[in-house]
Amino acid sequence: METNGIPDKQSMEGDTDLQFLLVGGDLLKVRSPSWKKTRFYKLQDDCKTMWQESKKSFKTFETFSIDDISDVRAGRQSEGLKKYTEVPVEGRCFSIVFKGRRKNLDLIASSEEEAKQWVCSLVKLRSNISNVNCLQKTEHWIFNCLKKADKNRDDKLNLKELKNFLHQINVDVDDEYAAELFKTCDKSESGFLDGKEIQHFYDILTHREEINIIYGEYAKTNGLMSAENLVEFLMKEQREKTTLADAHKLIEKYELDERAKQEKCMSKDGFLMYSHHAEGMVSNTGHMELYQDMSQPINHYFISSSHNTYLMKDQLIGPSSTEAYIRALSKGCRCVELDCWDGSEGEPVIYHGYTRTSKILFKDVIKAIKEHAFKTSDYPVILSLENHCSIEQQKLMAQHMTSTLGSALLTAPLGETMPTTFPSPEELKGRFLIKGKRLNKLDAIFSPEAPCEGGNDCVTEEEEENEEGEKQQEEKKKKKTNKLKLAKELSDMVIYCKSIHFNGFEDARNNMGFYEMSSFKEGKAVALAEESANSYIHHNVDKLSRVYPAGSRTDSSNYNPVPLWNAGCQMVSLNFQTACTEMDVHQGRFLTNGKCGYILKPSYLRDRASEFDPITLTRGAWLQHKTLHVMVISAQQLPKVNTKKSSIVDPLVKVQVFGVPADTAEKETNYLLNNGFNPQWNENFKFDVYVPKLALVRFLIEDFDSMSQNDFVAQFTLPFNSLQMGYRHVPLLNKDGDILPSAGLFVHIMVVDADSE
Question: Does the predicted model carry a pTM greater than 0.85?
Answer without folding.
Answer: yes
